[in-house]
User: Fold this.
Amino acid sequence: MREMFWPVTLPDWLPLPGKRAKRRALRSLHGLVQRHITQRQALPPEAAPQDDLLAMLLAVRDEHTGDGLSATELHDECMVMFQAGHETSATALLWWAWLMAMHPEAQARAQAEVQAVLGTREPQAADATALDWPGATLKEAMRLYPPVAALVSRARRLPA
Ligand code: HEM
Assistant:
């Protein structure tokens, strides 16, 4: 996190404070992501989920060459999605839940709309446009408590 807010990208070999901890954390994160990929690839096709992000990344093919993603590309895509996607969504939902708990009238209105649109069935992505009040309150929660409150700098590192 500290490095993301530095205005310049310093060489990774510099023995800056926190580098050992960063490397340890990175190893653990790479291992976690790779374990998920390896477990998924070991599943027989009929047992593997077909509709999540990992399934989409495994299925993707270059339209000219027909090639799928390389092992490194697949791993890197999963790392980005995991990092960019999970904490942001969790933070947004946490503030939203807290605000809804503080405003029971807004919560009741959102709940009534969910009941009317979905009943007891599982929500699909296409339902999002029909859920005005849940959508509006979620946006308001993110306006009040943005999960990402600053611009993030980019680092360009050449492959090792
Ligand atoms: C409430 C949820 C989310 C919020 C508030 C959010 C917010 C943001 C913001 C502000 C940026 C731009 C950062 C910058 O350039 O300074 C960004 C970039 C990005 N987000 Fe999200 N995000 C959310 C959910 C997700 C999810 C679920 C995914 C993927 C599964 C995702 C993937 C990405 C990626 C890949 C980028 C980088 C795009 C690029 O620079 O090429 N985000 N997000």
